[in-house]
Specification:
This protein is mainly beta. It has a single domain, classed as Porin. 5% of the residues lie in helices and 54% in strands. The protein has a 16-stranded antiparallel β-barrel with strand order 3-4-5-6-7-8-9-10-12-13-14-15-17-18-19-20. The longest helix is centred in the middle third of the chain and has 12 residues. The chain is globular and about 75 Å long.
């Protein structure tokens, strides 16, 4: 009789079966190593609305008059290690818009590969389209974030938070485990983008063609620290480059630089206290970039500043459900280079919300926003909108 034994693996909760007649295990094909996941967000933003003209192009296309139910995101992801040092990540959004009258187009969000420079992958090189390492909330997945939309101040730095480039990342093995744990334990982490990250990227934004011969340079340093039962994660980051406005985004009669190109640079500070149970997430940035000037009807290089602070509290229910009451205050004064005429903003917004994690596959967010937004361009040189609304978002995770 052949010998047969059951042994518990020292590194994982599974069993190794050994037999002197067991055939060799066939190596897995590359596609068998990939994981598939995703999420869908469905919104309604018009409850208790006091001003249907209050909109935010950066936030949500379904804000304001003429809008009802809206699929904000419909994401599918493929990811996994093709070999111990080569990692692949691909994400597509099927809720993209091609114009104001057409919805639900597929568009690439992420398409990159990581190559480990060291055997334990503490040093990695990332090639492709990915999130630019600038801002904690920018890198935090919309699947994990509490407020439905990212804040104006930090998010105005990079269109769709992503660009095409080359990045180097470093993080000790124990810190990479912490980044993974933040997500698994519902602590609202940003994911593993390294403790140190720096790189070069085009600078025009994800899925937009390069428009000049200059590259943007970015660097970020963050380091999660455990103090008793609490975990804090401070960070600093900065980027610099030149941004070229697309002629289609400049209104007739608005004066602009001859080459449509402007300096584009910022620096930001971040402080995060993980929700155990009380949480803090705050960021602020300063810099300069193109901005519409209503006094001269021109797009000028002007200073910018702004950020946000989010307070939250994590409540774990006995039935396995989880609740996150939160409040966020946002302020921003500056231009948004990727909007019409590098639209000028002076805004303040207070958001009060609750995320209800019904189970791992379903979440509901209700948030009441109180906003005062002045946003001006060549077509609307004097435009201030004030109003309140209750927003609802149902999210499905798969």
């Amino acid at each position: 009789m052949p010998s047969l034994s059951i042994q518990e693996s020292p590194n994982r909760s599974e069993y190794n079966w050994s037999s002197n007649t067991t055939p060799e295990t066939k190596p897995k094909a590359w596609y068998e190593k990939l994981n598939m996941s995703g999420y869908t967000q469905i919104r309604y933003n018009r409850l208790l609305e006091t001003n249907p003209n209050l909109k935010c192009e950066q936030c949500d296309d379904s804000l304001g008059t003429g809008k009802t139910f809206f699929v904000r995101r419909l994401r599918f992801k493929l990811s996994g290690y093709l070999n111990p040092r080569l990692y692949m990540y691909f994400q597509t959004d099927f809720a993209s818009t091609s114009n104001s009258s057409s919805l639900h187009y597929a568009q690439v969000r992420d398409a990159y590969f990581d190559y480990g420079l060291t055997e334990d992958n503490t040093w990695r090189i990332r090639f492709g389209q990915r999130k630019v390492p600038y801002g904690f909330e920018n890198m935090q997945s919309s699947q994990n974030r509490l407020p439905p939309d990212r804040n104006d101040g930090i998010n105005s730095a990079v269109k769709n938070e992503r660009d095409l480039g080359f990045f180097v990342m470093w993080a000790p093995a124990e810190k990479r485990k912490m980044y993974s744990r933040f997500v698994k334990e519902k602590l609202k982490g940003s994911g593993d983008y390294g403790c140190l990250a720096f790189g070069l990227y085009n600078g025009q934004g994800a899925n937009y063609p390069e428009a000049n011969d200059n590259l943007h340079a970015v660097a970020r340093f963050s380091y999660p620290i455990t103090i008793g039962k609490q975990i804090i994660e401070p960070a600093i980051q900065a980027y610099s480059g030149k941004y070229t406005l697309y002629s289609s985004k400049v209104s007739s009669g608005v004066k602009v630089n001859d080459d449509y190109t402007y300096n584009d640079r910022r620096a930001a500070g971040t402080f995060v206290l993980q929700s155990q149970p009380f949480g803090i997430q705050a960021e602020y940035n300063i810099g300069e970039g193109p901005q519409y000037n209503p006094a001269t009807n021109s797009i000028d290089l002007m200073p910018l500043k702004g950020g946000y602070a989010t307070l939250s509290y994590k409540i774990d229910a006995e039935n396995g459900q989880c609740y996150f009451p939160f409040v966020r205050y946002t302020t921003y004064q500056g231009g948004k280079k990727f909007e019409q005429d590098a639209r000028s903003y002076d805004m303040k917004e207070l958001e009060l919300g609750l995320e209800w994690q019904i189970h791992k596959n379903m979440e509901l967010v209700a948030m009441y926003s109180i906003a005062d937004r002045r946003y001006e361009d060549g077509k609307k040189p004097d435009n201030q909108q004030v109003g309140n609304r209750l927003r609802l978002q149902l999210q499905f995770n798969y």
